[in-house]
Every structure is written in structure tokens, then in C-alpha cells.
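Hey, quick one: can you model this chain's 3D structure?
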Amino acid sequence: MADFYTYRNEYANRRRKRRVVLALIVLLALLCAGAGWYWMQHRPAETDPAQADAVAAEPTATPAMTQAPTPEPPQTGAEPRRIVQAVDTAVWDTSAAVEQTIDTEYLNTDHRMIGVPMLGTVTNSYFDTVTFVGDSIASGLGIYQTGYPNAKYATYISAGVNSFVNNASMNNAVTKVSETPMETIVASQPDYVYILVGTNNLVTQGNEESFIAYYERFIDMLREQLNPGVILYIQAIPGVQETVVQTKPGLDNARIATVNDLLANLALRKGCYFVNIREALTNPADGSQIDEYQTSDGVHFSPSGYRVWAEYLATHTVWNRRSQYSGQNPYYIYGA
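Sure thing. Here's the predicted structure for all 336 residues.
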């Protein structure tokens, strides 16, 4: 199964192959042109038929040395003879829309294959310019001692993605201040935004289409109001304890996995990065919450779970020259 770097390497290989083919075509054209020019300069002089018959009639005669024909002086002002067909370069100096020939819609994407891979470990200072956005599950990163005290938080109890789109006034679960989310996010002036929202939406069954539509609108709003260089990370919705589905059927772990596939598709379409925190917080077999990290409600995480979550984020970032790394910079390991 392909992963993040496989997609990138396959694309780079195709580019290299196209360049090699183009270079071979140019080289072949130059060789043909050179061979034609050489032949034109050294072709044998034409012989008079009568003289050829006379020579054939005297086979015993000693062949005489013949003087090499004197090449005709080039005609000044004359159009040189072309070896290859003339090309009208004027038609190249234009730009126009090109019809799309490849379907750019991503379908049936497995979110585990789209997640950002492990790539070095950023220092805690990386999170000084991070704003975490989402519901009360994400707020634990700011409530517990995770090592990121300078990060900003726009996380709210019972928030859904529609809460951010509607910009409703809510109480910040970390700062305990009543505020409107979009104003708080913009005021934080982040370099990176980490989004985790959706668990409260999924309590309602059968709303996947509207959930993704709201999520896409939320991404557009962030793009419109934040600086162009801000990098957006969409975090996977983590699983819950197996017993939660008994009281909240919408939070079935299989359904949560399917919604994460949709979020991975969304990340690809909108130019965001997808962070699969599920692989650090849930069981690989069924996607349920690891018992060691559970709390009484089976949805939120214990302090040890949030520390594991924070460590996972530090080791799963996209390489950036602004980032400081603990140990070897991954630029020198994987290349830029």
C-alpha cells in the first residue's frame, strides 16, 4: 500500500522520465542535423556520363590522380538549406486554459495512507506559534501538562464544526473566556492550525454529508481570514470505548473510521495535511480507545493519553526550514 512518500516519489520519477525522454529527443535531433550537414559538405561531385563511359572502355589504363572538386562559395543572402522542418515558435508564446484530462476527485481514500508520516522530532518551540482548534477533546492538550504551554487554544465544550462556521459565542474550555471562535483564531496569528472537531457532530447518525460540507466551509473561512502562509493540519477523530456505542449509536468506531476517510479526502482537496492521531490513541484492530488512556465517559483521554498525543504531533510534522528539530534535521535524511 502506498504512503505519503510513495506518492511523492512516483510523481518525481515520472518527471525525471519525461526529462530524460525530452533530452534524448533533442540529442537525436542534433545528431541528425550534424550528420546532414556533414553529408552536404562532403558529398561526391557529380560525374559527366560521357566521361564515365570513356573510363569504363579503358580498363587497363592506370588510374590518374584526380583533383578534389573545389566547393562552391556560399551564396551570400541566400536562405540556408534546412535539415529539419521549420518550426513556428510564435505559437508557443501564448497562454490559454487547458482542458482538464485527469479526474482530480479523490475517492475511497484510506485515511491511514494519507496521514503525515514520522519525520524527525520538532522542539517544543514549534508549538509556540500553533493554534489548536476544536472541541473539548482537543482542549486536553492545553489543560494537562503536555509540554506546549505557549500554544494557543480555540477549543470549546460541546462544539461542532457548525459552531465554528456560524461563529457562535462559546466558552473557551482552556481559558474559560466567552468568545467567538473565528476572532480568537485570527487574533492568535498562528503559523500552524491543528483542527480536531467532529465527535459532537457524529452523535447524530446519518449526517456525514452535511458534516463534510460544514467542514469544507470552515477550511475556506480559515483560508480567507488567515495569512496565506498558514499551514492547516486536520487531525483524525479518535475512537471511543466500545461501550459508548450503546448510549450513543452514532459514535460507532467503524463509522468514525469511515468519516476519517472523508476527512482525508477533504485534506487532499483543500491542500491541508492529515494527521492520523488514531494510530497512537486507539487499538488497530477495531479503532477503539486504548484502555490505558480512557476516562469515565469513554470519549475523552487521560493525562497520559494527551502526553502520547502531544508526542505524536511532535514527530509527525511536514518538514519546514523554520522548524527546529531535536537531533538530526530530517532535511539531511530524506531530502527537501
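One thing worth noting: The two ends are 23 Å apart (CA to CA).
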